[in-house]
Amino acid sequence: MQVVVPVKLQPPPEVASALRAELTGCNDGANYVSTVAFETGTMREYALRKLVYAELRERGIKSAAAQRLIKKTVDAHTTLPANIRAGNFGRPGAKRRSRAESKPIAFRADAARAYEHRNMGWDIGAQTVAITTMSGRMKGIPFACGPEQLTTLARYRKGEADPICRDGVWFLYATCEVPEAEQYEPDGFIGVDLGIENIATTSDGSSHAGRELNRYRKRQLPLRKKLQKKRTTSAKRLLKKRSRRESRRVKDINHRIPPPAQWWQDAARNLTASGAVAVSSGLHPEKLTAVGSAVFHGSPHHPRKRSHPVVTPALRREP
């Protein structure tokens, strides 16, 4: 299965400027391709390439990057009509739907772009990467990550990687092809009830309460309202500093649900942070669609967030 491993880039100022110029130039090129596709009605990749490839190359965009931009734009213009037909932009005549249908798709200047493996190189031992930009190939860019991520990159890295600048900090999201773990036959099951007041309650009497998260959210809400009312430069700076802090805090708390050590010795089973029962027990969670999407969205139990997924037999039942 494919998993995404994030690493933190530590580029010097000149390399960071080159990376930023690369993202800006590529997304400007994608906006140009989107405009041509919308005005001419050309939504097929090969036909669109004949119209825009020469202009993209004149803008200094590398050949492989130009091909990716064209494919990215075609995919976006293919997805948009499907979303419109599905009603995701409202009924016919709705303002949001009319806006989406009346103009070409626009890409943010800082939106990530995918790098193929041939356009970048990895030195896992030295913890450096080399990335091709419009200013040339930037070599020896250091990156930082945990030992588990480093091992995953060394063993399973395969496919593209996306550089992203978030709040002035650069990250690189690498795709890894991790082999599926073998599924086993359990000798029993533990029920897990998912909720809001208690994040998870197991059938053997153990519970993980959500009071800490609720208290944290209650503390943050009045502070955000107070800063939003100020509208001063310092208040805006503090709001920007606190952006996404709550989601990161919730994700960290969900990831650190502490398993009691004696479970391994006494019952030889353990409720992990992903809600799976390890060793020889299966899992029988209650199927709560609304609660699961609201409370557990982005939590470490999500398979895309895990570097080494453990295949645990699971059954779901309707409440």
UniProtKB/TrEMBL annotation:
Pfam family, one: OrfB_IS605
Disordered, as annotated region: 228-249, 296-319
Domain Probable transposase IS891/IS1136/IS1341, first and last residues per copy: 176-256
Matches recorded under InterPro entries: Transposase
Regions of compositional bias (Basic residues) in chain numbering: 228-248, 299-308
Name of the protein this chain belongs to: Probable transposase IS891/IS1136/IS1341 domain-containing protein
